[in-house]
């Protein structure tokens, strides 16, 4: 009876571990990159906090805003370009834009 109970507990624990890892798997890479960024930016954070007279929360907020601008600035610029390209193609493909390209009827 005891051996049967230990086997069921081990199987349940194994299933629970497998399901937990299945849920966590998509986030492992993000967590790893977050750790890399935190370690890499800590000296910058420490320097900014010293410049601000030891105000660590303000330093963290400033670095966060700076990184958001660094990341979302180019993304926004690319997004605007992606919206502009179809408009440019539409303008260029209007029939009256290039009259010399009209095919004459035979």
Provide a descriptive summary of the structure in words.
With 106 residues, the protein is an all-alpha fold. 82% of the residues lie in helices and 0% in strands. It has helices spanning 2-51, 56-92. Helix 1 (2-51) crosses helix 2. The relative contact order is 0.04. The mean pLDDT is 86.
Largest sheet: none
Which radius of gyration do the C-alpha atoms yield?
Answer: 29 Å
Tally of helical segments: 2
The residue-averaged pLDDT reads 86
Return the string of H and E elements.
Answer: HH
The general outline is flat
In short:
With 106 residues, this protein is mainly alpha-helical.
Write the layout of secondary structure elements.
Layout: H1 2-51, H2 56-92
Give descriptors for this structure:
106 residues, mainly alpha, 2 helices, 0% strand
